[in-house]
Amino acid sequence: MRKELLSRTFWTIAMGLLGIAFLLPFLWMLSTSFKLEKDVFNFPIQWLPQQWNLIENYKQVWSGDFARYYGNSIYITLATTIINVLICALAAYGFSKLRFPGRDAMFVVVLALYMVPPQASLVPQFLLFNWLNLIDTHIGLILINSFSIIGAFMLKQFFMGVNNEYLESARMDGAGHFRSFLQIAFPLIRPAVATYAILRFIWTWNDYQYPLIFLKSKELFTIQLGIRLFGDQYGDVYSLMMAGAVSAILPLLIIFALGQKQVIEGIALGGVKG
Amino acid sequence: MIRKFHLKMDTREAIAGYLFVAPLMLGLIILTLIPVLGSLLLSFTDWNFVAGLGGIRFAGMDNFIRLFHDDAFMKSLLNNLLFIITVPVTIIVALLLAILIDKQVFLKDLFKVIYFLPYISSVVAIAMVWQVMFHPSLGPVNQFLMSLGWSNPPKWLADIHYALPSLMLIQIWIQLGYNIIIFIAGLQSIPKDLYEAADIDGANSWRKFRNITVPCISPTTFFLLVTGVIGSFKIFDLIQVLTQGGPANSTTVIVYELYDTAFNQLKTGYASSMALVLFLICLIITALQMLAQKKWVNY
C-alpha cells in the first residue's frame, strides 16, 4: 500500500510538471498581457511582471471596437446555440420517438451527409447566401451554423433512452406530440441538452472560417475576426495582442469551468467533434 | 370504429413526425445536399461568380487537368499528406498520458482539464500566442535556444523548412487533449478482471500494456485515427492565421488553396474542382475505414 502511495505521488508530481510545461503558452500569454511592452521579451522570462501594466493594457484593448466584436459574438453565439439545439432536439425526437413512412430512409440521408466535409459545400453556400442577400449579415451567419448532424445524433441517443410509457400515458391524457416532447421528453434529457449546448457554444464562439467568408463590414465582425484585425493593427505591440487573446478566450474558460464535467463527458461519450 | 381511431392516430403521428424532422431536413437539403451537388456541377465550369450566371462556361475536365499541373495545389496535397503524421504522433502520446492519468495520479479531473484547454480555446487566439512565442529573434522559444548555446536557431514559422513542422507541433498540442479524453473513456471500459488475471500470471506492466490495453483499446484508436485523418484534411484556421500558406507555399493545404482560389482569386469553377477532390479524399478514407475495420480492430 505504501509503495502504491509513493508511486502515485511520484507520477502526480511528474505529470504535474509536464502539465505546467504543456500550459506554458497560456501562462506566457497571461503574463505578457500584464506587462509593459518594453518588458515583453526580457530573458530569462519574467513570469510575474516587474512592473504591472494590467489595467492599462486591458483598458486600451477594450477602448477600441473590441466591445462591439464581443457583443456581436455573444449575440451570434447565443442565437446560433439556441436555434441549433432546438432544431436538433426536434429532429432527434422525430427520428427516435415518432413513426412515419420514410423515416429510416431520411435518417440514412442524414448519415450520408455527415460524411461531406463542410468545405466541399462552401462555395455554393456562399453563392446561395449572396443571391439571398444574406452575405454580410448576422442572420446569414446564424443560419449557416444552425443545422448540425452531430447534434441530432447525440440527442437521438438520449431520446431513445426515454421510456415510451411516459409518452404514451401523456398522450392518453390528451397531450399532443409537441406537448409530450416539450413537457416530458425534453426535461428528461436536459443534462444531455446542456452538454450539447455548451459544446455548440464553444464551437460557435471559436468559429473562424464562416465569419471570415460571410462577413465583410467591420462593425459586424465577431471576436475571432476582431482579434485578427487587432493583431494586424497592433502587430508589434505584443502586450496588447496578448491582452486581446486573453479576452477572446476568457468566456470559454468561464463556460468550461462551469460545465467542465459535462463538456468532458459529452466529448468522451459521443467522440463528438465539431 | 377502433380501426378508424388507430388510423387517425397513425396519420397524426406521421404528420407530427414530418414536422419534427422538417427543419433539420430542409436545412441540410438546402445548405449541404444542394451545395455539394452544386460543387460537383461547378467543378466542370470556368466561372467567376462576379460575372453573373451569363459568364458560366462549360469546361469539361479542364479544371481537373489544370489541378494536376498546378504546383501550388500539388504542394497543398503533399502538405496535407505530411500533416497526417500528426495523427499517429498525437495518438501515441495521448495513449501514454491517458494511461498515466487514468491509473497513476491523484487529481485526475484536473489533469483532464489541463490537457483539454488548448482544444476548447479559440484557434485564432492560440495562433497569435504561438506566433509571438516563435518570433525569430525576440521570441521566448529562440531566446531559450540561444541561451542554451544554439547561436543560429531556426526561424520557425518564417522558415521555409521549419514552418510546416512548427504548424504540426501546434496542431498536436491542440489535438492532444481531445485524444486523451476519448482514450480515458475507452480505458475505463476495459474489464478490470483481465488485468487481475494477468497479475496472477505474473505479467509485468509492459506485457499487460502490450497484450491487454493495446488490443482492448483498438476500437478507440481506430476511431481517433479515422476522425483524425479526416480532420487533418480540413485544417484551415491555423494556417490562415499563421502563415497564409507561406513562406513560398511551404505550408499551403487543400482547404487554404480552395479558400484563396474561391474568395481571393474569384475562380469559382476552379475552386469547386478542389472542393470535389477534398470530398473524394474524405469519401475514400471513409470507404477504407469500412473495409479495414474488420481486419484491424479486435473487439
Question: Brief description of this entry?
Answer:
Chain A has helices at 2-33, 54-63, 66-97, 103-114, 122-131, 138-144, 149-160, 164-172, 177-188, 190-206, 209-214, 223-233, 238-270. Chain A has 274 residues and is mainly alpha-helical.
Model description:
Chain B: This is Sugar ABC transporter permease. The complex is a heterodimer of chains A (274) and B (299). Chain A is mainly α. Chain A has 2 domains: 1-54, no CATH class; 64-270, Orthogonal Bundle (MetI-like fold), CATH 1.10.3720. Helices cover 74% and strands 0% of the residues of chain A. Chain A has helices at residues 2-33, 54-63, 66-97, 103-114, 122-131, 138-144, 149-160, 164-172, 177-188, 190-206, 209-214, 223-233, 238-270. The model of chain A has no long low-confidence stretch (mean pLDDT 90). Chain B is mostly helical and 299 residues long. Chain B folds into 2 domains: 2-42; 66-296, MetI-like fold. In chain B, strands 1-2 form a two-stranded antiparallel ribbon. The longest helix of chain B has 41 residues, at 2-42. Chain B is globular. Chain B starts with a helix and ends with a helix.
Give the key terms:
heterodimer; A: 274 residues; mainly alpha; MetI-like fold; 2 domains; 13 helices; globular; B: 299 residues; two-stranded antiparallel ribbon; 74% helix
Estimate the strand proportion of chain B.
Answer: under 5%
In CATH, the topology of the largest domain in chain B is named: MetI-like fold
- State the domain count of chain B: 2
**SSE ordering of chain B:** HEEHHHHHHHHHHHH
CATH class of the largest domain in chain A: Mainly Alpha
Choose one word for the global shape of chain A.
globular
Question: Any idea what the CATH superfamily of the largest domain in chain B is called?
Answer: MetI-like
Averaging pLDDT over every residue of chain A, what do you get?
90
* CATH fold descriptor of the largest domain in chain A: MetI-like fold
The end-to-end distance of chain A, rounded to whole angstroms, is 43 Å
Portion of residues within helices of chain A: over 70%
Helix and strand composition category of chain B = mainly alpha
**How many distinct domains of chain A?**
2
Described by its quaternary structure, the protein is heterodimer
Helical segment tally of chain A? 13
Got a strand count of chain B?
Answer: 2
Main location (chain A): membrane
Protein name (chain A): L-arabinose transport system permease protein AraQ
Pfam family, one (chain A): BPD_transp_1
Keywords (chain A): Cell membrane, Membrane, Transmembrane, Transmembrane helix, Transport
